[in-house]
Amino acid sequence: LPQFTHYQKARYPDSALSARIHGTTKLVALIDTSGALLEANVLRSSGDGSLDSSAKAAVAGHRFKPGLIGTRKVKAWMTWLVKFEPGSKDVVTPAEEKAAAQGLVMPETERVVTPKMPAAALKNGHTGTVWLQVDVGEDGRVRDARMERSSGFAELDSTAIAVARDDTFKPAMYKGKPRAFTLRYRVIFAMKKE
Question: How far is it, in rounded angstroms, from Cα 104 to Cα 75?
Fold first, then answer.
């Protein structure tokens, strides 16, 4: 299959971000034997037109390597997902664009502790998503983690906060120097499928 040689992040529309609209857009593109983009379309909508438009607009900035059959280059279709949510590596927020223009490099995940489903949640069939704000110090260690939006279940919320405090990051950098920073991300609790 064709592959990316350069991936252009989609811009998270400010209006969607402010309204906490999240979603995933699935795109499909036809790549020719030279790696040029011939056609790109939304294969599955995120449910929000502004997110889909942004995902499709970013395609112009992508660069591709053509597909191969053996060693022969071929024209081929490829698909990928663009996740619009805080912390997604697929998108850039207006604040991140502004920070980059000012010389700020965002923190990067170094180690993320995977939470275990609490016993009470398993027993009661509770699932949900917890949105957190996490303060990362200049050394990359978590200084504080607090809930921004509840899953609706106390045992899931408290577990998400507890494990977030054990995560570690490469710290944010501003003009070459480490800087404290607050991240926003989610923890999803779901039952495993058979």
Answer: 39
Closest of 27, 48, 47, 44 to residue 90, by C-alpha: 27
Measured distance CA(20)–CA(134) in Å, rounded: 18
Cβ(82)–Cβ(10) under 8 Å? yes
Q: How many angstroms separate the first and last alpha carbons of the chain?
A: 30
Q: Residue 21: exposed, middle, or buried by beta-carbon count in 10 A (0-12, 13-18, 19+)?
A: middle
- In tens, the pLDDT along 157-184 reads 999 999 998 888 888 887 778 888 888 8
DSSP letter string over 99-131? HHHTTEE--EEEE-PPPPPPHHHHHHT--EEEE
CA 11 to chain centre: 12
Residue pLDDT, tens place only, 108-121: 777 777 788 899 88
**How far is 105 from 111, CA to CA, in rounded Å?**
18
pTM given for the model: 0.55
The letter for the amino acid at 184 is: R
Handedness of CA 157, 131, 188, 179 (dihedral sign): negative
Residue matched to tokens 């494990």:
163
What is the SS3 assignment for 61? helix
Helix (H, G, I), strand (E, B) or coil at 138: coil
